[in-house]
Each structure stands twice: as structure tokens, then as C-alpha cells.
Amino acid sequence: MLVLFGILVILSSIILGFIVLVQNPKGGGLSGTFGGVGNQLMGVKQTTDVLEKGTWIFAAIVGILCIISPVFIPKNAGASSKNEELINKAPTSLPANTVPLPVK
Q: What is the signed CA dihedral for 29, 34, 40, 45, rounded to 10 degrees?
């Protein structure tokens, strides 16, 4: 399930990035990019409204998926086998006190 959330977050992020890159900060937006095709179909005002709504929707989707995904992380997941071996081989007693050699 966690993999599904990861794929959805990555896909939504790519779409969000595309929508943001298509927008023009000076108001030209999609209509200037595709040679006026968007202007003929929806009008300039409609194009910018659709892109702005898409930005907010996909940003909300990414945020919600990132907040919800930790719920599906298994709580009883133990340590990996390598970590278990290191823990089991660790000494349980402290090393014996050693006296430093006198310096000549």
C-alpha cells in the first residue's frame, strides 16, 4: 500500500510540475504557448482559471497523500536480519579496566 502512495505522490508531483511550468507569470499562460489554441477554445481568462485550479488541486493531493501515507507503515516491522545479527553479537559486559603503562 505504501508503494501505491509513493507512485501516486510522484505522479501527482510530475503533473503539478507540468502545470506550473505551463503557466506564464505575466498572464500569457497556455494561450501563448500553443499559439492561441487555448484562447480560441476557452478564452484567456478561462485558461488561467483552469491552470490555477489544477495547481491547487494537485498541490492538495500531494499534501494529503504525504500526510496519510504514514498510517500505512507497518508498526510491527522488526529490524532487518543484518541489524539483528549485530545486536545479538554485541558484548553484554563492559571491558575489563586496564591500567595504562608508565611513560618513560
A: -10
81 close to 14: Cβ distance less than 8 angstroms: no
How many domains would you assign to the chain? 1
Tens-digit pLDDT profile for residues 7-29: 999 999 999 999 888 887 665 55
7 within domain boundaries: yes
pLDDT digits (tens, 9 = 90+) for 34-84: 555 544 555 556 777 888 899 999 999 999 999 998 888 877 755 456 667
90 found inside a domain: no
Q: Which residues contact 19 (CB under 8 A, 6 or more apart)?
A: 51, 54, 55, 58
In a domain, 6, yes or no: yes
